[in-house]
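The pair is quoted verbatim below.
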Amino acid sequence: MKNTFFFVFCFAILNLHSQSDKKTTEELDQKNILTGICISGNCNMGYGIMKWQDETTYIGHFWNEIPSGQGTVIWSDGSIYVGNFSEGMYSGEGTLITNRNLYIGEFNEDVPNGFGTLLIEPGMYVGEFSNGELEGKGVFINKAGLIEEAIFKNNNPTGDTILIRENYILREMK
């Protein structure tokens, strides 16, 4: 019994938000989709609040009018990112909350990269991420309490996998 389908499906949802719905200030300005307006503070080189026509709001530090350092984005769909930015992208420690999931952990260039925790509808994954995918050692716990510990590659468990329920090892797959 593998939860691979749930990993791929739910993690795809996280990637869709972080890669297509999310637009950095730099991307918005380059594409002329929306023009952010500084409504408070110093949105050039300092701390300020910038708002776009679709009601997306960024509150935090800017460097050359681009989010850099600590900040918060509140998207018009209600999604929220709180954490570090580098050149307008999620970078370092952060938390991304969408209407479907919650990710707390490390980011690099807008995607989970490093160690993190992903809460999704069927359960919770705690482990390593690389370029937005489950990659490395991780544990998935579903709502029924089944624990799957494995090494993940391309969002799928590989090699040795251990299934545990109520402190009993159900199956070791090699």
Summary: Residues 35-99 form one domain. The chain has two helices and 13 strands.
